[in-house]
TrEMBL record:
Matches recorded under InterPro entries: P-loop_NTPase, SEC_C_motif, TPR-like_helical_dom_sf
Protein's recorded name: Zinc chelation protein SecC
Pfam family, one: SEC-C
Species of the source: Chromohalobacter japonicus
Length: 601
């Protein structure tokens, strides 16, 4: 009954608003109510007449600067305000409405209708009720009107409004606005909104802002800032179920799967005692406690909307693949090993490319000419229907790169996608190793296999660190020139595992042109091994290569640097910022290291 009334009221109010906008004077509305409005309430003339003045009183009028022009409520024995000529007690005063009329309804419908300068002026007036802004913004977002949604929600969260009056339903609106800023590239606006919410927002919004901040830092690999934001969120909203989800992700990013499982179990025990959680929330917490990686992977796959089913099918397929066909290899007179694609492999790749349609950028290590996920609804089902295509290294290369571009930063996706592909690739790698010769990037079709290896190494770097390092070490032995820059990645993982002697040895063949990550890996390894004179000498080399590096590492909160898609230029603040994000946690975890660095500013 209530749902029917809401639908009837919306239909009537929308028609009434159109009649008002045509004239913006009350008599015109009453003419509409008797002639057309009555049809929208099932022919009930009394109801049509009673509704019209109620809606008129709450309608913002453009001619009055968005103020309403309310009528005075008549006394029982006074003439009814619907202009029927009868007393109020015998007319609208005798009508019982089927349900309530929200006081913000006409503002909300007006915000849906207005465009251009009128909408801008209405929002700028500051007179729109919070609930009207909230509902109009959500409706615009759900209907794909991103620009309108952003404009309306920005008004809701304007610094000039009293945020203490915000309804708790404002939480999804806040998250939508943050997402709109992210998807539309308004990163400064996003940062400013989060800062303002953290400074003066209501408690429930501060907690959400901190949670989002934590996730943003995870996306950019700034684990120290992510941990700090999580701790603040925990202090602000200690009983938020979202914290269980975020802490599991944070611990997995930090490389602590067992602790992630233990903490997820703690959250499940704690929150399962609450009566206000829905059964699906409790089940998610229970699954998280049992297996954080698998639960987060399943959630990620299912959150992909149209791609959920084909992604699940791909994960199931990869788990059952047999060993791949052998490669066609040859040797050059200099003893180099070369891979040559066969006609069978070329045919498989041609069939795959009819669906995939995206070309790899041959000038880059890990990128495409365009986004392969825009047509993933075509190539994912096609690949699942033709698993034999994966016998072609070119298909493996495309698939590995595509998966890394979307899921490579998520530790919990390694088991579903990257480890099965790595097991398949390692069969080819073993075949290469038996040839006992250098395997150079520029020879024959070698780049296809090396690029595939790099994609898998990066994809497993967070979720299967040991396997990622072992694969990188094997490829590094084949590719003596280190065309892929794997030495830096292997050093990173050796330092994280505390294998400082091996890190010092691997980084030992140093020259002035070495990547800053390799140089600093040697500095840290030497410092940990208490070879201080050598560490001093190498740090001088690093500072000469990038003078921003040590200050960026030592400062508690340096100004962030936006990183481009390509690798930052050597010697720049961007390079120093990237190194800080990747490795500051290892310097912080090394006793005395930060103080030692600080003396070298």
């Amino acid at each position: 009954m209530l749902a029917a009334w809401v639908e009837q009221l919306l239909g009537y109010a929308s028609g009434a608003l159109k009649a008002i906008r045509d004239n913006e004077h009350y008599p015109a509305l009453m003419i509409w109510a008797r002639d057309e409005g009555v049809v929208r309430v099932g022919g009930d003339l009394s109801l049509a007449q009673a509704l019209a003045p109620l809606l008129w009183n709450e309608t913002p009028l453009v001619r009055l600067g968005f103020d309403p022009e309310p009528l005075a409520w008549p006394g029982r024995n006074e003439p009814c305000w619907c202009d029927s000529g009868r007393k109020t007690k015998q007319c609208c005063g005798a009508v019982t409405l089927p349900g309530a009329v929200p006081p913000h309804l006409m503002w909300m419908l007006s915000l849906k209708e207005w465009t251009g300068e009128t909408l801008k002026a209405a929002l700028g007036s500051g007179k729109a009720p919070d609930q009207a802004l909230l509902e109009a913004g959500l409706i615009a977002a759900e209907s794909g009107q991103r620009g309108r949604a952003q404009q309306i929600l920005e008004s809701l969260f304007s610094s000039e409004r009293d945020w203490s009056r915000l309804p708790e339903q404002a939480e999804p609106a806040f998250e939508i606005l943050v997402d709109l800023y992210q998807s539309r590239g308004f990163h400064r606006k996003r940062a400013a909104l989060l800062d303002e919410v953290l400074e003066r927002g209501p408690t429930f919004l501060r907690g959400v802002a901190l949670e989002r901040l934590c996730l943003m830092h995870l996306d950019s690999d700034d684990l120290a800032s992510a941990r700090e934001a999580f701790v603040r969120a925990q202090q602000t909203l200690p009983d938020s179920p979202t914290l269980a989800y975020i802490e599991s992700m944070l611990l997995l990013h930090e490389g602590h799967p067992e602790e992630a499982r233990a903490r997820a179990h703690f959250w499940w025990r704690r929150l399962s005692k609450r009566s206000d959680l829905e059964s699906d929330q409790l089940q998610f917490l229970a699954d998280l406690a049992a297996n954080p990686e698998a639960t987060l992977a399943e959630q990620m796959i299912n959150s992909e909307e149209d791609l959920a089913e084909p992604l699940a099918a791909l994960a199931a397929l990869l788990d059952t693949l047999e060993a791949p066909p052998r490669l066609h290899l040859s040797r050059t007179p200099e003893g180099h090993v070369e891979y040559h694609a066969t006609a069978r492999e070329d045919t498989a790749f041609a069939a795959w490319f009819e669906y995939f349609k995206v070309t790899i950028d041959e000038e880059a290590a890990l990128s495409f000419e365009s986004d392969p996920w825009e047509n993933a609804g075509e190539w994912l089902p096609a690949l699942c229907a033709h698993p034999e295509w994966l016998g072609s290294p070119s298909v493996m290369q495309s698939l590995s790169l595509a998966l890394t571009s979307r899921f490579g930063s998520l530790p919990w996706m390694a088991e579903s996608f990257f480890e099965p592909l790595a097991a398949r690739f390692e069969a080819w790698l073993s075949q290469l190793e038996t040839q006992q010769g250098p395997f150079a990037w520029d020879d024959a079709n070698n780049a296809t296999l090396l690029r595939c290896a790099l994609a898998l190494i990066v994809g497993m770097e967070r979720g299967a660190r040991t396997r990622s390092r072992h694969l990188a070490e094997r490829v590094l032995k084949l590719d003596e020139e280190d065309d892929l820059g794997l030495r830096e990645l292997v050093l990173d993982q050796l330092l994280r595992e505390g294998r400082d002697d091996e890190a010092a040895e691997l980084s030992g063949a140093h020259d002035e042109e070495e990547m800053i990550g390799v140089t600093m890996a040697r500095v840290l390894a030497l410092y940990r091994l208490e070879r201080c004179d050598e560490a001093d000498e190498m740090l001088t080399v690093a500072q000469r290569a990038n003078p921003y590096l040590v200050p960026m590492l030592c400062d508690e909160k340096p100004k962030p640097v936006a990183l481009a898609v390509d690798a930052p230029a050597p010697g720049t603040r961007a390079e120093a910022w990237q190194y800080r994000q990747l490795m500051r946690d290892q310097w912080m975890a090394t006793p005395g290291a930060m103080a030692w660095l600080d003396t070298h500013r």
